[in-house]
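WARN  no MSA supplied for this record, continuing single-sequence
INFO  ligand: pyridoxal-5'-phosphate
INFO  echoing inputs
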Amino acid sequence: MIDLRSDTVTKPTDSMRELAAQATVGDDVYGEDQTVNELESRAAELLGFEDALYVPSGTMGNQIAARTHTEPGQEIICERDSHIYRWELGGLAQHSGLQTRPIAGTDRGVLRPSAIADGIVEEDAHRPGTGLLALENTHNAAGGTAIAPSRIDEGATTAHEQGVPVHLDGARLANAAVAHDVALDRFTDAVDSATLCLSKGLGAPVGSVLAGSVSFIERARRVRKLLGGGMRQAGMIAAPGLEALESIDRLETDHENATILADRLDAIDGLTVHPPETNILLVTVPEPAPTFLDACANADVLATAFDEYLVRFTTHRDVSRAAVETAADRIASVVSA
Ligand SMILES: Cc1ncc(COP(=O)(O)O)c(C=O)c1O
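INFO  complex generated
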């Protein structure tokens, strides 16, 4: 089976398993897990912030950020197809009492500064006030688009001009960094917090990091506890995360494989390929996505439905170039059948 559903399906490497077994651990809720502390300080350094917090998932990182930045009853602005809005179970309302103001971005998922400015509401006797702007990079639903650091800066500056803080959902920020050939911290110059997932393309088994100022992370740590995310001997799972943080450059291979898959699928009549910028490839298919995916699964290729006729293929560490070529052959046979 060639599994292209998501970059979350990777299995830990032998060295990650070894690191987990040998990790120096303690009770992290007491701040005594040396491995978690090391992971948090390395993540803070790479993301360009004073401090960071290890969290079980990207979703929890985003939700903690939203609650830490805002007051209940405020509004959060986010892109209409952003993960924080569409795929986090309405957590913004449930955990933080926020009203969401979704705004359409460009077809690459970029929120225009003018749209951000128009979306900000000032608090008064009738209006709740905007408490946070959330950006996403790479933008998953737009097809893993790698938004340039300057575009992130522009959006964040617009929000700051109105006194609104900015969180960057950087679940796949490392992919954006590789695509633009810049360091991770170049994307965070103008934002107040950012998440990075260790368990997607970077291949760790569990976890994400949320980074920000010392005082933000101090408050975020309390919110993590509130949400039940305080972990004990978490060094066991943080140790592979440290290896993941040092393996950012390998994402280049996933991007190349996505381009190879795109080129191969583009040659198949009936498929419309949306050119990939990173490791995510969106393809419009000639029949309803579930029917197409069933046929692919019968041919031992897995992918994900993204819309009625839209399918997502994601390359990752556990699919080689040869596997991608084989997947393309199998998909071709599915389409011609
Ligand atoms: C952009 C983005 N943000 C956040 C998440 C959530 O990450 P997790 O699955 O670790 O909760 C995802 C997951 O795919 C994502 O694509």
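The mean pLDDT is 97.
INFO  checksum written, moving to next record
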